[in-house]
Amino acid sequence: MLKAGVSTPYYTLRVIISGIICMCNLLFVIFLVFFPREVLSAARDGLLLWFNNVLPSLLPFIVAVNLLTALGFVRLISAWVKPFMRVVFNLPGAGGFALITGLISGYPMGAKTVADLWCRGEITTKEAQRLLAFCNNAGPLFIVGVVGVGLLGNSTAGYVLWAGHVVAALIVGVLTRRQGNDGYTQRVEERAHMTLVSPSPGKALGDAVKNAMEALLLVGGLIVFFSVVVRAIMVVAGDLPLAAGGAIAGIIEVTGGVKILADISSGDITPRSIGLIGGIIAFGGFSVHAQALHFTSGTGIKARVYIIYKAIGGVIAAIITGLIWSVLV
Fold first, then answer.
1. I need a labelling partner for 169 at 20 to 30 A (CA). Which of 182, 288, 315, 320 fits?
2. What is the domain extent for residue 301?
3. Residue 272 is assigned to a structural domain of this protein
4. How far apart are CA 249 and CA 260, in angstroms?
5. Is residue 181 part of a domain?
6. Over the stretch 103-116, which tens digit does the pLDDT of each residue have?
7. Of residues 255, 257, 253, 236, the one with CA closest to residue 245
8. Total tally of structural domains belonging to the chain
9. What is the C-alpha separation between 115 and 306, in angstroms, rounded?
C-alpha cells in the first residue's frame, strides 16, 4: 500500500533502485566468497593506506578543529569573515570556519565541521546543504604532498592541482548563492551566541581526542570497504584501459584511483591527464561521500543535491587544472 503523498512513479523508481542495490550487494558477497585472495589483498591495501597516510595526517587536524569549535573559536572566525561570506556566498559568518577547515584539513573534515555547526545551531539546514557542496574538500597535504610529490614526483603539479581544486570549490560556492537562505539565519546565530557555553580546556581536549578517534575509525572502515569494491570491479571488468580503470576506481575511492592515474602520468604529465586527476580529487569518490553523509545524517541534507554539486565541482576542477597546466608548460 502506498503512503499518502507518494506518487506511483516515484515509488516504482525507489523499488527499482532498491532492487539494483540488493543485486549489487549479492554479487559483492559472491565475489567475497570466490575471490578471497583479491579481497584480502585489497583490504590490506586499504588498511595500510588509512594507517600510513590518513590517520597521521587527519588526527591532529580533527583534534585541533574539535578544540577550536568547543572553545568558541567559531564565533571569533564568524565575526572576521562574516562580510566576505555574506557578499560572496550569501551565507553566515560561521560558514567561513567550515570553508577554512575543509580547504586546510581535507576530507571529510569539511563535512564534519558543517554537521557540528548545524548541531550547535549556528547554521540552518538549507545553509548546511549549500556549505557542504563546496566546503568538503581535499587538503593541501594530500594534494601537494601525497599526489604531487609522492605519486607524480612533481611538486609544481601538486600546487597546480591544489589551485584548481580551491578555485573550483569557490566557484561552486558562488553558484549555490542563487538558492538564497531560509530566512532564519539571524535568529539561529543569536540563539547560538546566547546559549553556547565553552567547556573546560581539559574536558574539551578529552572530548576532541575521543571524537577524532571515532571519526577516523569510521573513515578507515569505509576506505577498506571501498578498496575491496574497487578491486571487485577491476576483476569483473577485466582488461580495461588504464585511464578508464583509474577513472572508475577514483569515482569509487579517490586515493586508489588517483594512484592509478598518477602511475600512468608520472612520466609525461599532460593537461588532459592532470585535469582528469584534478577532477577525480574534486569529486571525491563515493567513499568520501559515504563519510560526509554519515557525519551529516540527521541534518536534513539531501545526498542527491550534494553529489550533483560535487560532480559539477569535479568538472570545473578538471577544466581549470588542465588550463593552468597548459599555460605553465
1. 182
2. 37-328
3. yes
4. 8
5. yes
6. 887 788 889 889 98
7. 257
8. 1
9. 14
